[in-house]
Design brief:
There is one protein chain. The longest helix has about 35 residues. The protein is mainly α and about 425 residues long. About 45% of the residues lie in helices and about 10% in strands.
Amino acid sequence: MNRQNVRPLVLGAAVGATVVVLTYQAIRYMREQRKRLATQAEVDSFNTTQSATLSYGQVDHENTFSLAWEPPGRTAASGDTTLSIPEVHDSDAQPLLNLLYNIAENQARTDGYVHRGITCNICGQSPLCGVRFKCANCIDYDICERCEPKDLHNRTHLFLKIRVPLPPLANPRIPLFKPLYPGKERNASTLSWDEITKFKKDTNFEQFEIEALFQQYKSLCNSEKGISREVFDQCLGPLASGKNLVVDRLFKFYDKNNDRYVDFPEMLSGMSVLVKGSKLDKIPHAFDGYDLDNKGSISKENLRRMFKAYFNITIELVRDVVKACEEEMMANFDDSTGKPVSALFSAPIPADSSNNNAYVKAPIPGNPGGREGMWPVMEAMSQDAIDEMVDNVYKIAKLHDGQRMTFAKFKEVSLMDNSLVAWFDALGTVF
């Protein structure tokens, strides 16, 4: 039996043990209350596997709990057996009753949302009650909150969580958008216990982190070899449109065997350095990124090219953030407030042809105050800044222009100047 099959059994056993303990405590408490109140009601022995319901209410201004069940051998027509338990101030039993009450109340509130006209595609519940999960990539696929943890649907699809029911006829019957994960629909590959143990030893991740990252890897893996460069670029979002040296070197950092694919061990090893690695762990990989000539040392030109690529990708990140902020501001901007009534009419005012000497303001060339003209100015300024940064690094390393920087010098300077390792963290983990 592999690890994937053992885990559900362990979780099921733990949940079952918890239910047995709670049921035993509840039965024991009810028996004590029955003796204390000396009730004459008949209490039939019942099987704990029978369906039971817990309710809470007030009788004569006193809080009571009710546990109802159908005794063995008795039909629903003969009536259910109900035992009302007055609330007591027993420090041992009261927390248990409060817990059961909170569970029952929360479930009742959740089931109050009824999605009429919607059926769970797994268990068949109709109408679907509680929280509804709708697949955003399928035409018509819904599951209830009880079936959602089973994870039986396509893992590359996304689900929308819907609590408040939509009108039945207003429910969309089309895919809301295309799948965002490029991975295959069914990827049955699993990790063995030996593999997980090896990954724990070789990386800084724990077992459950490794299992979660493996699920993420399968959702991105579009080939048996691993994650292709095309999918790697897709993970960069808007930065994938242009070629950049930082992106190339970061892909090479992941692709350790140079086969143009990132397999799971490579992905896990790379993310371990980026997510949980110290600065000392990152310095060797940052040095390899600068070594564009594969000579084991770095020249001034290597530093200049990487600094320029890092600056360009930073500009792209800033441009993307600025664009998103502008779009959000325009979407929320109300330009009708504080304007005269005439501003509501869009018809143009006819020009007076007789006034030929009217002053017309000439536009400013290039609009230096606009956002469109900002980026070229910043790029021009960056050339001098990059040259100054390169000279400063060589000055700290006490090297001349024609000399190449060894790893020992690079490590020494990196511990004093964080800018040398900045490109390595510029894009996060990508995945």
